[in-house]
Amino acid sequence: QVQLVESGGGLVQAGGSLRLSCAASGVTLSSYVMGWFRQAPGKEREFVARIMWSGASYADSVKGRFTISRDNRKNNVYLQMNNLKPEDTAVYYCAGKTLGLSDYNYWGQGTQVTVSS
Predict the structure, then answer these.
(1) Do residues 32 and 99 lie in contact, with contact meaning Cβ atoms separated by under 8 Å?
(2) Distance CA 10, CA 20 (A)
(3) Quick check: 73 and 57 in contact, CB under 8 A?
(4) What is the pLDDT of residue 31?
(5) Three-class SS of residue 13?
(6) Chain segment 32-67, per-residue pLDDT in tens
(7) Distance (Å) of CA 116 to CA 10, 12, 15, 103
(8) Which residues contact 16 (CB under 8 A, 6 or more apart)?
(9) Which single residue of 5, 28, 63, 77 has CA 20 to 30 Å from 18?
């Protein structure tokens, strides 16, 4: 059974940093495209970052501030978030999909990130 568990969320002041972690079980992350998404209150879930064998990509809103990485030995994926802004406040979700699929088929339960001004 595949399970993704996020951690590392919390309350931080604008300009601060947080590092989110996603621990995977039941799946070998190195074989999957792994992504981070977020959903703010009253808004649709949106793409934040993605990492695969060829590299990483980011939403324009976080480019230069966030960095996605993976540790295949630990089967973890991370999202380093720097220079956080109040508009980054959201529930952040880790997700995974098999290369070639259009939709992510594995999702974590989410972790809350709140950035105060």
Answers:
(1) yes
(2) 10
(3) no
(4) 83
(5) strand
(6) 999 999 999 999 999 999 999 889 999 999 999 999
(7) 11, 6, 9, 33
(8) 84, 115
(9) 28
